[in-house]
Amino acid sequence: MDRHPKILIGGEFRTTTQRDPIDVLSPSTGEVLWSQPACGPEHVEEALGHAREALKSWSAVHGWERGRILRAIGLELAARTDAIAEALSYEIGRPISQAAGEVGAAAEQFAWYAGEAERLFGDTIPSRQGGRLLIESEPVGICAAFTAWNFPVNLPVRKIAPALAAGCPIIVRPSEQVPMTSTLIAEACVAGGAPAGVVQFLFGLAEDISPAIMAAEEVRKISLTGSTRVGKLLMAQAAETVKRCSMELGGHSPVVICADSDVEAAAVQCAMFKYRNAGQVCIAPNRFYVEDSVADRFAQKFVEEARALVVGNSDDPKTTMGPLTLDSGRAKVERLIEDAVGKGANLLTGGRRPEGRNSGFFLEPTVLMDVPDHADIMQEEPFGPVAPIARFRDFDEAITKANSTPYALAAYSFTGSHDKAERLSRGLHAGMVGVNTFMVAHAEAPFGGMDYSGMGREGGREAIKDYQNTKLTHMMWG
Predict the structure, then answer these.
(1) CA-CA distance, 365 to 351, in Å (whole number)?
(2) In whole angstroms, what is the distance from residue 239 CA to residue 19 CA?
(3) Cα–Cα distance between 90 and 326 in angstroms, integer?
(4) Residues with a known catalytic role
(5) What is the pTM of this model?
(6) Domains of the chain (ranges plus CATH)?
(7) pLDDT digit string (tens) for 103-144?
(8) CA–CA dist 436, 438 (Å, integer)
(9) What whole-number distance in Å separates Cα of residue 141 and Cα of residue 395?
(10) Are 170 and 199 in contact (CB under 8 A)?
């Protein structure tokens, strides 16, 4: 693997800048993987100049041609699957056996939005005053994307694909944890035919890059995947220049397990998705509310699944759960576990750093039982491999508990009743609800939350609208 991350400005890749490079640490060993070139306000200004020129030409490219380029980028991304999976595994600690799937999902985004680019037709309405009302969509302008590290391929691609389909150039600032993965995405964009300045990647610290982007009048739309805290900061800054915002922020997804479900099968699914990516998933199941009569059966099976996981270095094919990506993330999860136990929860398994691992950011898969509502973990997103289980007595109590946080990204339920499934779909307050499944992310469907979990949507027909302005022309003749 080429161990030299590269920024992309105006169609040119660079491995160095005049600023000090930033090291990337391995979550598995704590050692330096590679160093990335760091950008600052001067690079933002340079990228904006290229984006201004790109907007003039790219916005005029016919949707069919934009679609062709998007499909080509998707194919180039897929051709780099092995390299991207390796980089991703090294940088965030996801097991190598689980790393390639994200690339396929990202390639689907380009394929989907290629079709959307071809269908930007507008509309015509006969006017009551005579003539025609023409409704047309135009690119919103230069866009900026700020993305987290936990899904370093899907998160930027979900923003790049609809922006390009709509005719907008985009500047991407990915997390400084994932520059090599980001470099490979940038290379796929260039190889697929994205013209210079249409897609640009700037690496470095948020405080050195984001303020200059947010202050730029010509940046008309931003998209963030990150914490609610950062989302609030960017929304306040966006107000100064009236930028359009779409944001996927924090989540704290509840799961309601009813007694009429297949309890053991539900526990298997819950454990699989809880510990995926070591629990570092925005839509991960985080709070498990189980009907009292089956709670012990559910917990027993959950513990079996947790103990069956193989915790190890991300590059080991036998590993089924890797380390947390950041040491600070592990410390947060340990704090939440300690708080829950101190407030009366029962630690059924895990809760410790694995024996014999003196390097890396590992933590055992953890299950907590009978976690009280006032424990911090029931209100604060853990973003780690810990599953807090609580009991409920009746349906209304389950809905109340599930909706008890300000987050509303995803929610899940398991039931064998069609009637309850409908009631859960209506009653759970979230942007996405899964009934007997955790599969709520699809290229062809809207992805996003409400309240403290953000605004706007990615995926589906809805997402491209955030990258467009709607213009009305009343056309009258003589």
Answers:
(1) 7
(2) 30
(3) 13
(4) 248, 282
(5) 0.96
(6) 7-249+453-475 (3.40.605.10), 253-444 (3.40.309.10)
(7) 999 999 999 999 999 999 899 999 999 999 999 999 999 999
(8) 7
(9) 47
(10) yes
